[in-house]
Amino acid sequence: MSLARFPVRAVLFDLDGTLLDTIHDLADAANLMLAEMGRAARPLEQIHSFVGKGIPNLVRRCMTEDAAAGEDEIEQAVVVFRRHYALVNGRSTRIYPGVVETLEAMRAMDLRLACVTNKAEAFTLPLLERMGLTPYFGAVVSGDTLPVKKPDPAVLHHACELLGVPSPLALMIGDSANDALAARGAGMPVLLVTYGYSEGMPVDTIECDGLLSVATGALDRIAAA
């Protein structure tokens, strides 16, 4: 059975869990934060399920999943997390297999590329630079670029505006319901990778246009627009 191909001129990529495996750095920062706040460390698998909606959400879940925490304490914990994460950001991060080959192939196809993430810009831009991915992207939209984050489709519309491509002629590639819902709201197709984070939700239960076991699989889903 042949797979549907999408006529697009741009591809938008999520960052954590799609392009980069960042979980070890996020977990290190989270557990350093918890230790400083007098809380017990959390296992990697649990922190893995907290990733997806940005740092404030990650910190809140670390602080409140099985214990009470006031808003002032959570705000303080966010500041502590950001301080620790700034030091470890990229230290143990790795590029997922097939990502560089996919970006190279898409660039050769004259597709315009953007990174759209819920990670704050202060961490997104240095991480992309450290991993050597910055040159591939004509636009980067971070979690604090606009007043809203994914799943709000406004961030995808903004990325398309920066690239000069209408939203229906863009393809979103991500790893979670945040990406799928944002893409649906923006009127563009969406493919989800099976190796990402997805906030603990089985990725095959998320409504999308297809699943990718490796990034290069996206190349077979693109047609000339």
From TrEMBL:
UniProt-annotated binding residues for Mg(2+): D14, D16, D175
Example GO molecular function: phosphoglycolate phosphatase activity
Required cofactor names: Mg(2+)
E.C. designation(s): 3.1.3.18
Active site (catalytic residues): D14
Signal peptide residue numbers: none
Keyword line: Carbohydrate metabolism, Hydrolase, Magnesium, Metal-binding
Keyword Ribosomal protein among record annotations: no
Recorded metabolic or biological pathway in which this protein acts: Organic acid metabolism; glycolate biosynthesis; glycolate from 2-phosphoglycolate: step 1/1
Catalyzed reactions: 2-phosphoglycolate + H2O = glycolate + phosphate
Group of enzyme by EC: hydrolase
Gene Ontology cellular-component annotations: cytosol
Record-level GO BP terms: carbohydrate metabolic process; DNA repair; glycolate biosynthetic process
Keyword Protein biosynthesis: no
HAMAP family: GPH_hydrolase_bact
UniProt family annotation: Belongs to the HAD-like hydrolase superfamily. CbbY/CbbZ/Gph/YieH family.
PANTHER family in the cross-refs: PHOSPHOGLYCOLATE PHOSPHATASE
Protein task: Specifically catalyzes the dephosphorylation of 2-phosphoglycolate. Is involved in the dissimilation of the intracellular 2-phosphoglycolate formed during the DNA repair of 3'-phosphoglycolate ends, a major class of DNA lesions induced by oxidative stress.
Alphabetical list of NCBIfam families matching this protein: HAD-SF-IA-v1, HAD-SF-IA-v3, PGP_bact, PRK13222.1-2
Protein name (database record): Phosphoglycolate phosphatase
Source organism: Aromatoleum tolulyticum
